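Q: What residues go here?
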């Protein structure tokens, strides 16, 4: 597996990269901060199986040219690209009346437009590889909407729609597109306080397991949408 995982410096993306590397995969991770990318690469290299390879690119998914250059580097380093995990995402939790243009654009441009940029640039490489996977990490917030999360819910609902439409476009090119919709996952994303009990939440590894399960599906099978939530509420 030759993969690009956007937003692989921590949380769900890091866990997905780690799981791929444990099976001998070649993985590029991305993130906005050079220091965090370097730190993640060091940590990921420790758990990589023989033959696995991990590289990093400091690039914001909103930067189309930078992202395209990173994808080209992954292809030239690994030879091909067969797996794209669109994971990078942010949330802003404020009511619409008080939401700034900047906050709106940060969420929509990262969670939706960034996925478009990465997907469009990757499809020709996946076709050249004879097919592969595009897995989009959406959210249950893309179906179950809630107050003070309009930008986030809209971005993830848009991502669910985007995933299904592109799935229909490329399925006959042996490219499988799946949308994973997690509920609450215990990562830095939700800015938990130290005293908060998060033991009821999913872990990043739970989401990585879903992704690895998808990648193991036989060629004839495409679970195109997966909802996953904690088995119990708080
Ligand atoms: N945690 C949850 O409860 C939950 C539930 C459902 C869905 N999700 C989704 O799961 C995905 C991962 O979330 P997480 O919980 O793992 O969050 P996280 O721990 O905050 O990690 C987010 C990752 O995305 C990267 N990132 C953020 N903005 C970026 C940008 N503009 N360009 C490139 N990389 C960017 C971050 O790297 P840098 O900061 O280094 O750039 C980091 O690696 C997101 O799409 C999120 O919406 C999370």
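A:
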């Amino acid at each position: 597996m030759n993969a690009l995982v956007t937003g692989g410096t921590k949380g769900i993306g890091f866990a997905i990269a780690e799981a791929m590397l444990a099976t001998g995969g070649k993985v590029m991770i991305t993130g906005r901060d050079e220091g965090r990318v370097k730190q993640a690469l060091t940590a990921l290299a420790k758990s990589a199986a023989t033959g696995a390879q991990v590289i990093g690119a400091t690039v914001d998914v909103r930067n189309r040219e930078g992202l395209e250059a990173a994808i080209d580097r992954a292809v030239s380093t690994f030879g091909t690209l067969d797996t794209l995990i669109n994971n990078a995402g942010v949330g802003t939790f404020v009511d619409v009346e008080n939401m700034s243009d900047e906050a709106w654009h940060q969420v929509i441009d990262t969670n939706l437009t960034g996925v478009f940029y990465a997907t469009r640039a990757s499809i020709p490489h996946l076709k050249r590889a004879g097919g592969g996977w595009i897995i989009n990490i959406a959210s249950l917030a893309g179906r179950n909407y809630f107050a003070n999360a309009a930008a986030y819910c809209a971005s993830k609902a848009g991502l669910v729609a985007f995933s299904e439409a592109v799935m229909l476009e490329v399925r006959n090119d042996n490219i499988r597109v799946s949308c994973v919709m997690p509920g609450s996952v215990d990562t830095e994303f939700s800015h938990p306080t130290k005293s908060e009990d998060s033991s009821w939440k999913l872990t990043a590894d739970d989401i990585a397991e879903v992704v690895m399960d998808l990648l193991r599906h036989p060629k004839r099978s495409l679970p195109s949408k997966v909802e996953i939530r904690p088995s119990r509420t708080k």
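A: Context that may help when evaluating the design: The chain has one domain: 2-228. The first strand starts at residue 2 and ends at 5.
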